[in-house]
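Course assignment 3, question 2. Fill in each field.
Student: A.L.
Task: Predict the tertiary structure for the chain below.
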Amino acid sequence: MRRAVITGGTGLVGMHLSALLEKEKYDVVHLSRSRKPVTRFRSYRWDPESGYCDKDAFRDGDTVIHLAGSNIGEKRWNAKRKKDILISRTETARLIYDASVASGIRPDAFITASGKDYYGSGISEKIYTETDPPGSDFMAETCHLWEAAADPFEAAGVRVAKIRTALVLAPKGSALSKLKAPARAGLIIRLGTGRQYFPWIHIDDLCSVYLKAVSDSTMSGPFNASAPDHITHDMLMDAVARQRHLPVFLPHVPPWLLHLVLGEMSVVLTSGSRISPDRLIRSGFEFRYPDIDQALRAC
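Answer field:
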């Protein structure tokens, strides 16, 4: 049976992807910090803080899917928090390498998550492709180093795919849940200028991207995982308003106020540029939810 080892398996993407891989007859195992199983999937213990990883988790021919990483929107950013965000993505990849490749175990593929912010957190009319260089701000540098942590696998002859993920839309637990929360009270809240672009992907499509990366041996290097429907924040909130049959009348929450409340982390909400999924589409991938109205109905 084909085998997939997943880090971050109890997260939003990890749980959806684990279920999809299981449906496709993969033997799915998780790396977990807990000594007790927290899901129905078999787990092996790792502790990135102490540098421990159970080598029994890995076998020759496995596909390793690296989703683990601290939630960037969970806490206000300070120097310590930013360090945690970076280390949780980079040192963990090195730990996996040491426990597998460096220990004489050869995975078939190493597939790592990355982020749309690889290209920087500004607002630009440019549509970014995988050949564009990384940006220079904190999130861009984080994504750049996150991907670079996978390079030792490639140097050892392991196929590596890097999934630069847009904001994930899902019925529960995604960024969409927070953005549409005021709608429950009959309000549509618009953030920043509203002109910032909002690259997005439905959770089902994202998991299908990972499934393709697992099963398609031609997929290597970076791929932008973002729906082809380019929308701004205002366009997103207008779509939410249509779904909920609500009026849009409140003024935008200004960027300076969001920065006052959230600090540097506010850039996640107030900036954004378009990224192109053309390379993914050329690989043969077909989106189930290519436009925002379809995706919101599904959510």
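Instructor remarks: The longest helix spans residues 79-99. The longest strand covers residues 109-115.
Grade: pending
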